[in-house]
Each structure stands twice: as structure tokens, then as C-alpha cells.
């Protein structure tokens, strides 16, 4: 990429970045409730977000800046396989419709702020609560770092070099998140999502028109993939079907186990709000499909980049006037701020409620919880920033892959307790441990790739490691629970969850 500063694009970028910064600080006065009064106000926005706010907030932290960068980059690199994100976002919303309203009711009735709160309420196990909390915190950290990767890509495309612009942007983010809590990303999400929609809808009309139509786009991509050979192509190969399906299914189950997506659920004002959002949120899947097509358009535009993550910014810089490129870059950068803020808040809520309050200061006041969470959110952001500045980007990519595998292993502890009292905490904890260890070892043995291969009867089957680990997790949880129930059938399994 050229090192020459694109002043028009940069000016537009600065304008919109300044706009959302002001909105972030003003968000502290938006809606009723004192931000520092308790964790419900700072970390969940007072649990008062309605249908449209929740739609923008959940969409904002589910479809991140890295999504806009990484999905078309993956399609650019491997072709049809990169479209796995589409079926996964289609699968996830029926799951949200069926499960999340029940989770909301449980959390609302018992004052739970985090998934670990819900798990402790269900099983009265501090060990299982801590396992869920630590998993959530660790899985979130590289996810925040990847938002910086997306922001860094557009900043460098505008000709800015060095780390100072990224540091300045994250300082601003840290300050208004500290000041306004969840209200800041909720308010900014309105601007972010509107801008992303405009950028993508313009791109999928204008770019093909400039390149000779979609026929020319697909032909150019097909020719490029044929030249590459291997597993790339416009259509999945038979050997990729199982891996594609399991990756989509496992990703769908993991998506709403992350602290940031659950924060949006807990912040809603009713179970009905969540159901209606599960109906409305698939509109983002259409947007995601259009975003993915940018990966094919790059071939027709003859885009050449050092890494696939640079592809989207270079495409906009090449085919659009500077002012619109600046608008697109600011949309992507703001798309990093919203999820990064919610992720840091979700991690801070977990640390405050399930580590600090449980083990360090059980008598902490409500205002004290809010103060600890504010400080923790700053520490989390600083950690993610340091990770991005001082370690190779590949580390963040690898850890985010492992993070998805790890967070998926909290699924049985969180979801099963909403429907049955049969499982024992010891069984779920054993399943979690086995899933984490086997999944991590298998992914590591395969060079930190998400897909593993199993040979049976002379045939080979490729599947998503995280889903395989989840299946093993559930099997172990069932066996251990059955053994424990047989040994001590009269064990008291007090349950605090109420639907």
C-alpha cells in the first residue's frame, strides 16, 4: 500500500470518528439511571433497551469491523468455503429465539449479570462458575485485539503509518466506555450500522457496474481460483461438505456464548424483545452475504495485496472517490469501536461479579461493583492493545480461533441448566475440562487450524474441532453425572434458577 496520506479520505474519517466520540460521552446522559450506581446501570444499560436499540446493539457487536474485513478476505483466499458465515448466522437465530428469552427470564428474576452468574445459580458450584467466567474473559481478549486489526487496515490504507493513530483511537474508546458504560456502544451502533449498510449497498451496485457486471466478477474469481488449484473455488468440493457444515453449526452454537453477545441479551427490557430481535436480526445475514461478495470483486478489480486483510480497504481506495473511501473507512473503524466496547464491558462484568466479588470482596457495594468493572474494562482494552502492538497479528488470529473453541465448551453448563436439573456440576465441569483440553490439543496438533481429520474404515472425515470437542464434552458430562447420581442419589442439588 502507498505511504502517501489520502487527505480527503482522512478528513471524512476524522469527522465521523469525532461524531461518534461526542456521542459516546453524551451517552452517559441517555436514558434514566446513574451510570455509577451499580453494575446493572453501567454494564447493562439499566436493562432497559427495547427492540430497536437491542437490534442495533446485538448486530453491532455480532457483525464487527473484523467481520467486514475478514469474511471477504477469507472468500478472497479460499472461495466458497469462506461463505460458512452465512449458514451459521442463519442457524443461530432460531437458537436465539428458543433459548435466549428463557435465559433472560432467569437472569432478570435473579439479578444475574453474567453467564457465570446464571451457572452458579443453577448448580451452586463456585468451581463451575469460575470455569465459565475465566473462559469468557480469555476468549474475549483476542476478539478485541482483532477489532484493532480491522481498524489498523483502514488507517494504514489512508497512508498513516505507525501505531499512534491506533493508540489514540483506543484511548478515546476507553474513556467514553469508562464514562458511559454500555450506553455508549448502544448509541453509536445506530450510526455504525447505518453507515455499514450504506457502504455495502453502494459497493454491491457500483463495483460490479464498474467491473462489467456480476458475470465478469464471478468469471474473474473462478479463473483466479483455478490458477491457484487446491481446495479453492466458487463451489464447495465434496471433501469440504462435512467440514463446512460442522464449522457453521459449531460457530452458531458458540456465537451467543460470548460475553459481548450475552451482554446484549441481558440488557434487553423483556423476553419478547429478544424474540422479536431473533426475527429481525437475519437482515444482517443478507448484509453479510453482500459483504462476502467483495472477496470475488477484488479479483475482477485486479487487486493485489500483501495479506488478504488489506483487500477490502484497497478495493474501496481503488474504485471509489476519496470522500466515499473515507466514509467506508470510518464505517469500518466505528465498526471496531462498538464491539470492542461491548466486549470489554462483558469481560469486566465477568471479572467483577465472578472473580472480584466472589473471591476478593464479597461485601462490595453496588457502586463498588460498577467502579471495579470500569477499571477492569480499561485493563482489558490496554491488554488487547498491547497484544496487537507487540505481538504478530497471527497470534491474535490463532487465539481467536482457540477462543471460539473454548467458549463453545461453556454451552452445556449455561444452556442445559435452563431445561433440566439432571446434570451435576461435577459432570459439567469434567466435560468442560475434557472439551477444552482435547480441543486445544487437537487444534494445536493441526497447526492451529479449525478443521481436524478423522480416519474410519479407510475413509477420512474432516470436521470442526470445536464441535467435536463439544460432543466429547457432553458425553463426559453425561457419564460423570450418571456415575455421581448412582453413587450419591440423595445429593442436594439446590437450584436458584427461576424461569
Q: What secondary-structure arrangement, pairings included, does this model have?
A:
Elements: H1 7-26, H2 39-44, H3 51-62, H4 65-78, H5 85-110, H6 115-123, H7 126-157, H8 164-180, H9 183-211, H10 214-228, H11 241-255, H12 259-266, H13 271-280, H14 283-292, H15 294-300, H16 311-319, H17 322-360, H18 366-390, H19 393-408, H20 411-415, H21 425-445, E1 451-456, E2 459-464, H22 465-487
Antiparallel strand pairs: 1-2
Question: How would you describe this protein?
Answer:
The chain contains 22 helices and two strands. By secondary structure, it is mainly α. The chain has a single domain (7-412), classed as Sodium/glucose cotransporter (Up-down Bundle). The protein has a two-stranded antiparallel ribbon. Helix 9 packs antiparallel against helix 17. The longest helix has 39 residues, at 322-360. The chain is globular and about 70 Å long.
Amino acid at each position: 500500500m502507498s505511504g502517501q496520506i489520502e487527505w480527503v479520505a482522512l478528513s471524512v474519517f476524522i469527522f465521523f470518528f469525532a461524531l461518534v466520540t461526542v456521542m459516546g460521552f453524551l451517552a452517559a446522559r441517555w436514558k434514566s439511571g446513574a451510570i455509577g450506581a451499580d453494575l446493572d446501570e453501567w454494564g447493562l444499560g439499566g436493562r432497559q433497551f427495547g427492540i430497536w436499540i437491542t437490534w442495533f446493539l446485538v448486530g453491532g457487536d455480532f457483525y464487527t469491523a473484523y467481520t467486514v474485513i475478514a469474511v471477504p478476505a477469507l472468500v478472497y483466499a479460499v472461495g466458497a468455503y469462506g461463505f460458512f458465515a452465512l449458514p451459521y448466522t442463519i442457524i443461530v437465530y432460531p437458537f436465539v429465539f428458543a433459548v435466549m428469552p428463557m435465559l433472560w427470564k432467569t437472569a432478570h428474576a435473579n439479578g444475574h449479570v453474567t453467564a457465570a452468574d446464571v451457572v452458579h445459580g443453577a448448580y451452586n458450584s463456585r468451581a463451575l462458575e469460575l470455569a465459565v467466567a475465566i473462559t469468557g474473559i480469555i476468549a474475549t481478549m483476542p476478539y478485541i485485539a482483532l477489532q484493532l486489526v480491522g481498524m489498523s487496515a483502514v488507517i494504514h490504507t489512508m497512508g498513516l503509518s505507525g501505531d499512534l493513530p491506533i493508540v489514540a483511537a483506543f484511548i478515546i474508546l476507553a474513556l467514553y466506555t469508562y464514562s458511559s458504560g454500555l450506553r455508549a456502544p448502544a448509541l453509536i451502533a445506530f450510526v455504525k450500522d447505518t453507515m455499514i449498510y450504506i457502504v455495502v449497498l453502494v459497493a454491491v451496485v457500483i463495483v460490479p457496474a464498474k467491473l462489467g457486471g456480476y458475470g465478469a466478477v464471478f468469471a474473474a474469481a473462478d479463473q483466479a481460483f483455478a490458477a491457484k488449484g487446491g481446495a479453492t473455488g466458487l463451489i464447495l468440493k465434496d471433501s469440504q461438505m462435512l467440514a463446512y457444515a460442522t464449522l457453521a453449526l459449531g460457530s452458531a452454537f458458540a456465537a451467543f456464548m460470548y460475553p459481548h453477545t450475552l451482554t446484549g441479551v441481558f440488557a434487553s427490557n423483556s423476553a419478547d424483545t429478544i424474540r422479536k430481535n431473533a426475527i429481525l436480526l437475519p437482515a444482517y445475514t443478507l448484509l453479510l452475504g453482500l459483504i462476502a461478495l467483495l472477496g470475488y470483486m477484488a479479483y475482477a478489480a485486479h487487486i493485489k495485496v500483501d495479506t488478504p486483510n488489506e483487500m477490502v480497504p484497497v478495493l474501496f481506495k481503488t474504485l471509489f472517490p476519496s470522500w466515499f473511501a473515507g466514509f467506508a473507512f470510518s464505517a469500518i473503524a466505528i465498526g471496531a469501536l462498538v464491539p470492542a466496547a461491548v466486549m470489554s464491558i462483558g469481560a469486566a462484568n465477568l471479572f467483577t461479579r465472578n472473580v472480584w466479588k466472589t473471591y476478593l470482596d464479597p461485601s462490595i457495594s453496588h457502586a463498588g461493583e460498577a467502579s471495579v468493572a470500569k477499571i477492569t474494562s480499561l485493563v482489558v482494552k490496554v491488554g488487547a492493545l498491547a497484544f496487537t502492538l507487540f505481538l504478530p497479528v497471527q497470534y491474535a488470529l490463532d487465539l481467536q480461533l482457540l477462543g471460539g473453541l473454548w467458549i463453545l465448551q461453556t454451552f452445556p453448563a449455561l444452556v442445559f441448566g435452563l431445561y433440566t436439573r439432571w446434570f451435576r456440576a461435577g459432570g459439567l465441569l469434567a466435560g468442560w475440562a475434557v472439551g477444552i483440553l482435547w480441543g486445544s490439543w487437537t487444534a494445536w496438533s493441526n497447526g492451529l487450524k479449525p478443521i481436524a481429520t478423522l480416519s474410519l474404515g479407510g475413509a477420512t472425515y474432516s470436521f470442526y474441532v470445536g464441535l467435536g470437542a463439544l460432543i466429547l464434552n457432553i458425553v463426559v458430562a453425561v457419564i460423570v453425572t450418571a456415575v455421581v447420581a448412582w453413587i450419591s442419589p440423595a445429593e442436594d442439588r439446590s437450584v436458584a434458577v427461576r424461569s
